[in-house]
Design brief:
Order of helices and strands: EEEEEEEEHEHHHHHHHHH
Pfam families: HTH_18
CATH class of the largest domain: Mainly Beta
InterPro entries: Homeodomain-like_sf, HTH-like, HTH_AraC, HTH_AraC-typ_CS, Tscrpt_reg_AraC-type_HTH
Keywords: DNA-binding, Transcription, Transcription regulation
Structural class: alpha+beta
GO molecular function: DNA-binding transcription factor activity; sequence-specific DNA binding
Oligomer: single chain
Number of strands: 9
Number of domains: 2
Shape: elongated
Strand order of the largest sheet: 1-8-3-6-9
Protein name: AraC family transcriptional regulator, arabinose operon regulatory protein
Radius of gyration: 23 Å
CATH topology of the largest domain: Jelly Rolls
Largest sheet: 5 strands, antiparallel
Strand content: 15-25%
Helix content: 40-55%
CATH superfamily of the largest domain: Regulatory protein AraC
Distance between the termini: 55 Å
CATH architecture of the largest domain: Sandwich
Length: 279
């Protein structure tokens, strides 16, 4: 996780400047130490595995969902340590994270706007992760990135951190694996797929994926998929001229009779009655 000084981009008039951004994956022990103090802000979000980060005079164990933020001049030390007893393969990943080096007058004002914690528990809230990945994608775009877009994405990320990192009512306790399952379902709801397809996409066993999702959301993957498909069908009945058989097919239902049965069980009316009331 080294700052890419060769790729520092700037533009007059922007309130922030990205000096380095990316995704780091470590399969072997790793140490990074900046005892002389950082020369920019550093944000690091642990996405999987564990790492140890120096905060004050102690090493914090950072796990998935832990965000650490440092201001210019602060000492920084990162340690990723392997535990051979827990590893099933030499290819096992010890730690993965999203990182960001940045600076600028807007960031100075944002940082000073409230007492800043070095460590926040974000629980990998999907909004933060999405913005972070969008910023990385734009910053690393071949050629000249859109610096204005990077500026706005960074500001949005900082404000989102404020919302979910400092407001307990807004913070999400949902683990990343469960959010990834939910995202997969919503993306592929209109298609046919199996529990194995979902589990393989996020790198879990079927039983583990089922357990993680049920524990996080209080319903099964199949139940949630059915709810998403039914909501898609409701939207199409409200806002399209497609017939009910077409809607059932486009929303992933195997047959109209099955769609009719689950729709009536969910809403207490038939699809045709629902459509008449909605128009």
């Amino acid at each position: 996780m080294l700052m890419d000084n060769a790729c520092v981009h700037s533009q007059p008039g922007l309130g922030t400047k990205v000096r380095g951004a990316g995704f780091a994956e470590h399969e072997a022990p790793y140490v990074q130490s900046v005892r002389s103090g950082l020369d920019s802000y550093l944000f690091r979000l642990q996405t999987d595995g564990q790492a140890r980060v120096l905060i004050g005079d102690r090493l914090l164990v950072a796990e998935a969902g832990d965000l650490v933020m440092f201001a210019p001049g602060q000492v920084y030390e990162l340690r990723i340590e392997g535990n051979d007893a827990d590893r099933t393969s030499t290819n096992d990943v010890l730690s993965t994270d999203l990182y960001l080096f940045c600076e600028g007058p807007w960031l100075d004002q944002w940082w000073q706007g409230r007492p800043r914690k070095t460590h926040l528990r974000l629980a990998l809230h999907e909004n933060c992760v999405y913005l972070w990945r969008q910023l990385i994608e734009e910053y690393r775009r071949p050629g000249q990135p859109d610096l204005e877009l990077c500026d706005y994405l960074l500001r949005a990320l900082c404000l989102t951190v404020d919302k979910y990192g400092y407001d307990p009512a807004a913070a999400s306790p949902i683990p990343l694996a469960a959010e990834r399952i939910r995202s997969y379902i919503e993306k592929h709801a209109a298609e046919e797929f199996t529990l194995r397809d979902v589990a393989e996409d996020i790198g879990l066993s079927v039983s583990r994926a089922v357990h993680v999702f049920k524990e996080a959301y209080g319903q099964t993957i199949v139940q949630y998929l059915q709810d998403v498909r039914l909501q898609m069908a409701c939207d199409r009945m409200r806002f399209s001229n497609l017939n009910l058989e077409q809607i059932a097919d486009l929303c992933g239902f195997r047959s109209y009779s099955y769609f009719y049965r689950v729709f009536r069980a969910k809403y207490g009316v038939s699809p045709s009655e629902f459509r008449q009331r909605a128009q």
